[in-house]
Write a structure and sequence with these properties.
Structural class: alpha/beta
Strand content: 15-25%
CATH class of the largest domain: Alpha Beta
Radius of gyration: 20 Å
Largest sheet: 7 strands, mixed
Number of domains: 2
Shape: globular
Helix content: 25-40%
Distance between the termini: 16 Å
CATH superfamily of the largest domain: Alkaline Phosphatase, subunit A
Number of helices: 16
CATH architecture of the largest domain: 3-Layer(aba) Sandwich
């Protein structure tokens, strides 16, 4: 069937898309000795590197993956944005911001059995939009009801245990395990499982804590594989260390700096979400609204003079380069280099949360992520993946047509 102008052929096996939040390939490479199932997927199935959407944040990439189209089409360009009609900063987690249907909802309304499990509840409402199936978050698994989520009694009836807390590394393991246990109980045509990146924000590739976490993820990927599913694993973004030599966060507080230049601005940081322990709302991408549009070139030149600020684009330039919706990104779009984050003012951020080190994402430096399948792609789709030009939001297109 055609969804958002792309064809999605029905498979005769369960199709499972997995988004490993914040997991760039170095994590898998460093954990290969404890991830035998994923290593088998890579050797016996298919793997390539793909690009996420910019900004390389959670909401825009997850919604791109489940719609199969970039933000300019689906409308989701951040976790957080400035609503020009309301004149306030809002979380972009309401389905009203979504401009197109999801692959999941369209499949569910055409007779296919669909299940979605997300670690973080912030994604659930959009993932569940018009979905006739199961959709719940590990975060609030204890609150799932038949009416709201298509399932009840998750902790005792499905999982046999309570869910971990949202800042417990194993909340993501619980998410993948839930997918396996759903599939053990009954057939599903299509599943989407999406984790949280608490571990990746806290630990570098190869750290014992990261490897322990990934070994547990690997176990449940193996269980899904045993159930005969076609599995595709990708990520919403990568992750880098963003620290000075003393370990403190490396930040350019651009709202403060611009105001000191008498360039009055409102800076919006679309990484902002309810989970500030992860990142202190500091990432590699920001948008800027100028009080005086006549200062646009002055602001652009000044920002580009700052150490660590790599790219500054006008609205039109950002729409063209990054396929972003022009009505939701402000006057300027700013991206940092690999080691720097963009902030508003020191007072606006809770820097105490990241005083012992910061790992974050958002710019092009977090854009390249792996896409791994447990089966061999056919020649046409293997060739496409090998180009390096595919996107993470091609995941379900590959799962539907590549075998």
């Amino acid at each position: 069937m055609k969804i958002n102008n792309r064809n999605y052929t029905d498979q005769n096996k369960p199709v499972i898309g997995v988004c490993m939040d914040g997991t760039s390939y170095p994590y898998y490479e460093a954990a290969k000795d404890v991830m035998p199932n994923l290593q088998r997927f890579i050797k016996e199935g298919s793997m390539g590197m793909v690009k996420s959407v910019i900004p390389s944040f959670t909401n825009p990439n997850n919604m791109a993956i489940v719609t199969g189209v970039p933000p300019v089409v689906n409308g989701i360009c951040g976790n957080f944005y400035w609503d020009t009609e309301l004149e306030e900063e809002v979380m972009m987690n309401d389905p009203k911001y979504l401009k197109v249907p999801t692959i999941l909802s369209e499949k569910s309304q055409n007779g296919k059995k669909v299940a979605v499990v997300t670690a973080k509840d912030k994604l659930r409402k959009m993932l569940a939009h018009n979905l006739d199936g199961i959709c719940f978050s590990a975060e609030f698994a204890n609150q799932a009801t038949l009416e709201e989520n298509g399932i009840e009694n998750v902790e005792q009836g499905l999982m046999g245990k309570e869910r971990p807390g949202i800042y417990d590394p194993y909340i993501s393991v619980y998410c993948i395990e839930a997918g396996a246990k759903l599939l053990q109980k009954e057939h599903f045509d299509i599943m989407y499982l999406t984790t949280t990146d608490f571990v990746q924000h806290k630990y570098a590739p190869g750290d014992p804590e990261a490897n322990d976490f990934l070994s547990k993820i690997d176990h449940w990927l193996g269980e899904l594989d045993k159930l005969g599913a076609i599995i595709g694993v990708t990520a919403d973004h990568g992750m880098q260390a963003k620290t000075n030599t003393d370990g403190s966060p490396k930040v350019q507080f651009i709202e403060k700096l611009l105001n000191e230049q008498e360039i009055r601005t409102r800076v919006i940081l679309p990484i902002t979400d309810p989970y500030v322990v992860h990142h202190g709302a500091l990432g590699g991408y920001g948008t800027l609204y100028l009080e005086d549009k006549g200062q646009l070139e002055e602001a652009k030149d000044y920002l580009l003079s700052l150490e660590g600020i790599e790219t500054v684009l006008t609205n039109a330039e950002a729409v063209e380069k990054y396929e972003l919706p022009s009505d939701r990104i402000g006057d300027l779009v700013i991206l940092s280099d690999a080691a720097t984050t963009i902030g508003r003012t020191p007072e606006w951020h809770d820097l105490d949360k990241v005083k012992d080190g910061l790992r974050s994402h958002g710019s092009e430096h977090s854009q390249v992520v792996p896409m791994i399948f447990n089966k061999k792609l056919n020649d046409e789709y293997a060739s496409k993946l090998a180009t390096g030009e595919c996107r993470n939001f091609d995941l379900f297109h590959f799962l539907s047509n590549g075998f």
